[in-house]
Write a structure and sequence with these properties.
The complex is a heterodimer.
Chain A lengths: L1 E3 L1 H17 L3 H12 L3 H20 L9 E9 L2 E3 L3 H16 L22 E7 L4 E8 L1 H4 L3 E5 L4 H16 L7 E9 L1 H10 L12 H15 L14 E11 L4 E8 L4 E6 L1
Parallel strand pairs in A: 1-3, 2-4, 7-8
Antiparallel strand pairs in A: 2-5, 5-10, 6-9, 7-9
Chain B lengths: L2 E5 L15 E10 L2 H12 L11 E3 L4 E4 L2 E5 L12 H6 L4 E4 L5 H9 L3 E4 L5 H5 L2 E8 L8 E15 L9
Parallel strand pairs in B: 1-2, 2-3, 3-6, 6-7
Antiparallel strand pairs in B: 2-9, 4-5, 7-9, 8-9
Chain lengths: 278, 174
Amino acid sequence: MRVILRQAIAVSVQALLVSINTKLPLDVWGALEQAKELSRGTGALFMDDIINNAVLARKRGLPLCQDTGMVVVFAELGVEVSLEEPLQQTIDFCVAEIYPRQGYRPSVVSDPLARTNTNNNTPSIVYVELVTGNSLKLDIMIKGFGSENMSRSAMLTPAQGYEGLKDFVVSTVKNAGGNPCPPIIVGVGVGGTFDYCAMLSKKALLRTIGERHRESVWAEREKELLTAVNELGIGPGGAGGGPTALAVHMEYHPTHIAGLPVAVNILCHSSRHGRVVL
Amino acid sequence: MRTFELTTTDFSQSVDEMRVGDRVYLTGVIYTARDAAHRCLHSDLDRGIEPFPLRGSIIYYTGPCPGIVGKPITSAGPTTSGRMDVYAPRLLALGVWATIGKGPRSNHVREAALEHRAVYLVATGGAGALLAQSIKDYEVICYPELGPEAVLALKVERMPLIVADDIHGNTIYN
């Protein structure tokens, strides 16, 4: 067994939390530059603000968005790794320390109905998958709720098939309109169970923009869905005059003979995520 | 598209001229309020308390990043206005001149805004760092217990905004 110390995880995770809250990944940057080229009128005005914001945040180490999100972690934990404590505890320690220290907004309430702020942005959402090997891989995402609120899932019937799925994705983006800070990234989960499908739709958001699905038939669907949502004309900031989405990423999983679960997780243009491998 | 350089005190003189898509650079004092502050504000109003003067005020739907000592409010972009739609008509009826947020408003809010000659302005969603640059000072006005959702008076200088709903019934969201 290889022991990975809590402190080693904390140092990497805290550095990553600061970096992803202030610096856009290069692929997102490139996609935004491209979207700006394609924008005009009010859409171009919004794109100018979005790019200038990213430049300023990077230069001065400022949070890109005041919604410093719920921290979502997708962990791949090697079965030959031994940890000192449950991963959730380590991640929450990192967030609880770094968020107040950096002055990031605490955006988590403990009881969804009583709504008392926990004041340190914990707990985080942590998914752990056990894999072979002796390393720990953490994909960390800062998920804002302006876009999370616009996400939806549905249990379609097998008969509805791809056409039904396509309608659901397009109508979800249409209903979201200018609310989720377009140009957005659309994560689509297909199959599995009700809950697993939603998780997949979120995981899909981590993929580098420009990378297509590994299976060509799914890659084609991504391309077709991207065209379809961009034809809605919602545009940057919702005012038209440019792209609605930067990318559509799909992930699928085997499912039951009776079902076709679909989930659409929407992400704002401020796609903040990164990876550490220990 | 026109560009307006306005102060919060003489704001109402220009509402007739504003059209959707116009750029507005706003200088003066605006009040922050988002979900929890609206809930508190409404229960205060039910009890006859007006915690800050609403007439002639401009409300910004935001919950800023608190920042650190010597570097307060590091990010302060708009939150989704639609969640405040349930509260907005009452505030517009009490004389709020304008609201600032992001995303479309529901029809009942647009009707109330028309009736009370209030414009709806948007700031670029996700441009929190950029928008925080126009905040020069702030003061907690009420509900400090709400933390990032407390009502703050923000002193802003040339805050970059866009007219989303004008008082002639137009909207940029079609």
